[in-house]
Amino acid sequence: MSGTPASIANERPTDDFDPRAPETFTSAHELYAEMRQRCPVAHSNTWNGFWALLRYEDVVNVLSDYKMYTTSVQNVVPKLAFTGRRPPLHLDPPEHTSYRRVINEFFSTEKMKAITPVIRRDTVALLEPMITATRGDISVGFAQRFPAFVFAEFFNLPVAMANNIKEVTAAYIEAIRDTNDDLVKDYSKRLYGIAADIIAQRKAVPMSPRDDLTSALLEARHEGELLPEEMVLGTVRQLIVTGMIAPSVFMGNIFVHLAENQELQTQLRSQPDLIPAAIEEYLRLFTPYRGMSRTARENVEFGGRLIKKDEPIALVYASANRDESIFQDGDRFVLNRPNIKDHIAFGRGPHQCPGAPLARLMLITMLEEALARTKRMDLDGEIEMTRWPEWGTNSVPMSFIPA
Predict the structure, then answer these.
(1) Alpha-helix runs per DSSP H in 178-228
(2) Which residues are CB-contacts of 58 (< 8 A; sequence separation ≥ 6)?
(3) Among 66, 166, 257, 401, which residue's Cβ finds the most Cβ atoms within 10 Å?
(4) Does the pLDDT of residue 146 top 50, yes or no?
(5) Answer CATH for 27-392 from 3.90.1150.10, 2.80.10.50, 1.10.630.10, 3.40.50.80
């Protein structure tokens, strides 16, 4: 709802929560549940100040209205885009559509079927030594390594280059969490250099645009003209980061929950056809993104609070996906939840994550292989959590009884 109500026009934003506060596996969601009742439209003075929407309806309304809420100003809290525009996330429709059209084609059902054997091979190669050894850190040993292997296959890159991207991305994200702007810029420039190398390789050794996303972007056209080369560079730079982050902090969450719910672990092991449904509920319950951001083009009101034009708004997916008004018993895992399709783990609207099919494939394969190769999985040490803007685990020590 737009406008500037007189009753709130002079309101000074309060400091309602600290996004940098240390967290346990349950503390953030306990805070969000309390804030959805007490302060669903919250403000933090951290990172130069931002608003946070915690209710499902508010988050979805913003995601669905790209004309009012732009992604071109700031798309993550804290702000991290200092080194150029990176389509499609940094563009609004219709400008972003030419880039999304190319990207979407590479996440088709046909392409997911083609990549499945390789994903299963790499899943087994990473899991098997850990399970055979009967213990290991599922986050450090698997979740933080697996995306690089998938990425290498998906982008037709050497695994060594994908591992380098993963290492630089990890340092880049850590600099963001520490709000060290100089380091953020430095690592971002290094990622741009990697993207430039990928493009140079494709120009030197061309690949079919049907088989290679970078090649497809280089040949794509908008209104008869090739996409600007600096924007293609920005697109590749964007893509080489986004697919690395969320899986790395998300996968360990599933193992924590299964270790604490042995009956569910046994059920999924005996009924693997339930695994896709379990993954959907895990995506809702343990949504990894909580700082995706939009900026209002004019003053707006949410819940009686004024959000002024150009003030950043964090859309807290991790809270919205547990909103009790939408998901009954939202803090509880419910297999085959009736309205599970309403979750927004991958966002909604024109910027909904195009990589969702690949993410689902990775998660389903991981859980299938982990359960099939074990009789039991348990926690074997202290869990270490990541920090805003993601929610999830950095370390999950596990013990395994091999099948």
Answers:
(1) 181-204, 213-219
(2) 40, 41, 302, 303, 320
(3) 166
(4) yes
(5) 1.10.630.10
Neighbour count for residue 22 (Cβ, 10 Å): 8
Contact 220, 228 (CB under 8 A): no
Cα dihedral across residues 77, 80, 84, 87: positive or negative: negative
Q: Give residue-wise pLDDT tens across range 67-116.
A: 999 998 988 898 876 666 788 988 898 888 999 999 999 999 999 999 99
Decide if 366 contacts 251 (C-beta within 8 A): yes
Report the distance separating Cα 215 and Cα 232, nearest Å: 10
Do 41 and 58 form a contact (C-beta atoms < 8 A)?
A: yes
Amino acid identity at 148: A
Helix, strand, coil % over all residues of the chain, rounded to 5: 50, 15, 35
Token pair listed for 31: 């805070």
Tell me the three state secondary structure of residue 129. Answer: helix
**C-beta of residue 305 within 8 angstroms of C-beta of residue 40:** no
Pair 44, 50: CB distance under 8 Å: yes
Residue 223 DSSP class = T
Average pLDDT over residues 256-285: 98
Q: Which residue matches tokens 């926690």?
A: 379
**Side chain identity at 256, as an amino acid letter?**
V
* Residues making up the chain, counted from first to last: 403
Confidence band of 291 (pLDDT split at 50, 70, 90): confident
Largest CA distance in the chain: 67
Give yes or no for a contact between 181 and 82, defined as CB atoms under 8 angstroms apart.
Answer: yes
Instruction: Pick the closest to residue 17 from 5, 26, 30 (CA basis).
Output: 30
8 Å CB contact between 177 and 47 = no
| Per-residue pLDDT at 396 exceeds 60 | yes
Model confidence at 8, in pLDDT bands (50, 70, 90)?
Answer: very low
Q: How many CA atoms lie within 13 A of 199 on its CB side?
A: 20
Average pLDDT over residues 353-364: 96
